[in-house]
Amino acid sequence: MAYHHGDLRRTLLDAAAASIAESGTAKLSLRALAKTAGVSNAAPTHHFGDKTGLLTALAAEGFDLLAESVTPSSEQGLVDMGVAYVRFALDHPSHFAVMFEPALLRDGDPELTAAQARAGEALAAGVAGALPDGDDESSRYAAWSIVHGFATLVLSGAISVADPIAQARRVASRLVAREGGRA
């Protein structure tokens, strides 16, 4: 059944994201992914080693996508960055589901560690540039907690809003209004 496949790694990551979106991480199966991709059962193992390796690669990709999404521009304020964070979570729910679940990931993986650092630096830079005390760790945690919590509540179905992006803008605006930062 094994044959040349254009970009099997990409195909498997996409199939994993689709599977997680449909059934969650617990039901993710390398064997099922191989079947979906039309390759041998051993092919995913060749690329990722095991399920943990696959989830780690998906999380690393997610952190890179998050870093790209929230990297501040000169005209982007904290609210825009918060909205970008929520939009990332809604656009990439499977990545988001694994990124913040350390028990699912390979601890110390260099690709994951580097991607986490890139995302963390982008988030920290945005908060530092937007709030008067943005270099303060508590301010960074507060800003992150608000948008991460909102995204998590929307994705889990705990809250339902007609327009989650518009609501994310209003939620993120609360932090800026209280802190006197740049909207």
From TrEMBL:
Superkingdom, taxonomy of origin: Bacteria
SUPFAM superfamilies named in the record: Homeodomain-like, Tetracyclin repressor-like, C-terminal domain
Record-linked Pfam families: TetR_C_33, TetR_N
Cited InterPro entries: Homeodomain-like_sf, HTH-type_TetR-like_transc_reg, HTH_TetR, MT1864/Rv1816-like_C, Tet_transcr_reg_TetR-rel_C_sf
Domain HTH tetR-type, first and last residues per copy: 6-66
Keywords carried by this UniProt record: DNA-binding, Transcription, Transcription regulation
GO terms assigned for molecular function: DNA-binding transcription factor activity; transcription cis-regulatory region binding
Stored PROSITE patterns: HTH_TETR_2
Annotation: DNA-binding region: 29-48
Protein name, per record: TetR family transcriptional regulator
